[in-house]
Amino acid sequence: MGAKLLRNGFLIDGTGKEPLRGIDVLIEGNKITQIGVNLEIPSRLNPYDVEVIDLDGKVIMPGMTEAHTHLTWDNALYIQDIDFKPIEETMVAAIRNAETLVKSGFTSSVSAAARGRVDIAIRDAINRGELIGPRLLANGAEVSASGSFVDLHPNHVRVHGLAILSDGEDAVRKTVRSLFKEGADLVKINVSGESLTPHARGEMTLYTDKEVRAAVEEAHARGKRVYTHARSSDSVKYCIQAGVDIIGHADFINDEVFEMLVENKERHFVVPGLNWLVSTLEDGAKYFGQEAIDATGYKEGLEIALFNMNRLHKAGVRVLPGGDYGFKWCPHGGYARDLEHFVKLVGMTPMEAIVSATKYGGQIMEMEDRIGTIEVGKLADILVVDGDPLKDISILQDHSKLKVILKDGEYIVNTLAVKRSAESPVA
């Protein structure tokens, strides 16, 4: 792994600071070693071995983090499609989705559940260099109560699909232990419902506070974390009280739970999954009919979610992108759409949306000292964008504008000319 010099870029470093023009970034191996204007090749390097890319003012920014990923959800129409898809085909699709994810500019990813051990196997293969994909925190099957929104089969039929049904503290503990035994980095538990399933709507709380606490105790005892599906106010309250690390959705929080989240903002991440709601309202009717979409209450639910995400963001709670991609109307590849929602619907500035995907991404990956911002000493997870996302955040959805994607100092994508330094070697 040699050295690379990115010259004359427009630096958005991920910290939220004002961007800088005419910036060079020197990468040696997998680390950023210098940042400045008109950098010279240091004497320790042979300049003829340094790859130089003239960016001509293009944006340099950190690789982003997708914080609600389902690699094993692939063009599904119903949850049952995920349950019944043969695991072999599921694995093939997940490998493809991992490559799509990193080539979309998301060099890191937090899984929010998967079929079987697929995430775990893909994570390990990526780390060995056998597959192309992001840095991945792997999850296993969702842990869910009987009668929950993923319990869709008749009572006389039991399917080991996307979820493991576990009721009561002891059963939850056993399931969480088994998932960590298989190598998961974190576990996902469904504390509330989801309104596409009429018998378990999003406003319903389906796990008790003691069941949530049992999962968290088992995870934290192993130095691991818990991710939750929690839309109802009580479900989020249970998550905060139990010390859940990553709270998915948090749509329907009341003022009491809002204040609790703000008080504990250094402890929790919130990943609202907005694109699920937006895309379902936009395109769900073509699959389910308008009457069925109206019955979900998603239109009113989105308004409530946007109100709550706006006030959580303004209060300093870390709100991250991650949109439940993997269904027909919410397909893989559109991950950066969440940043557009943050700007146009939640009220973030483009810079704040970028920070949510980069700096906060490094934090949620538990790699804050190594990724998430472009700083000397950090790993070279870097994007070069042909266009300014501070003027048009939607440009990050256009993969043709992602001219360079580096992960760990290696090219995932490079469409720009590379030359060797013409400078003379320095003794």
SSE topology:
Blueprint: E1 3-11, E2 20-28, E3 31-36, E4 50-54, E5 59-62, E6 64-69, H1 79-84, H2 87-103, E7 106-111, H3 118-127, E8 135-137, E9 142-144, E10 163-165, H4 169-181, E11 186-190, H5 209-221, E12 225-230, H6 233-242, E13 246-249, H7 255-263, E14 269-271, H8 274-283, H9 285-288, H10 290-296, H11 298-314, E15 318-319, H12 337-346, H13 350-357, H14 359-364, E16 382-385, E17 402-407, E18 410-414, E19 419-420
Parallel strand pairs: 1-4, 1-5, 6-7, 7-8, 9-10, 11-12, 12-13, 13-14, 14-15
Antiparallel strand pairs: 1-2, 2-3, 4-19, 5-16, 16-17, 17-18
Helix pairs in contact: 4-5, 5-6, 8-11, 12-13
Overview in brief:
By secondary structure, the chain is an alpha/beta fold. The chain has two domains: 3-62 and 373-420, Urease, subunit C, domain 1; 64-364, Alpha-Beta Barrel (TIM Barrel). The protein has helices at residues 79-84, 87-103, 118-127, 169-181, 209-221, 233-242, 255-263, 274-283, 285-288, 290-296, 298-314, 337-346, 350-357, 359-364, and strands at 3-11, 20-28, 31-36, 50-54, 59-62, 64-69, 106-111, 135-137, 142-144, 163-165, 186-190, 225-230, 246-249, 269-271, 318-319, 382-385, 402-407, 410-414, 419-420.
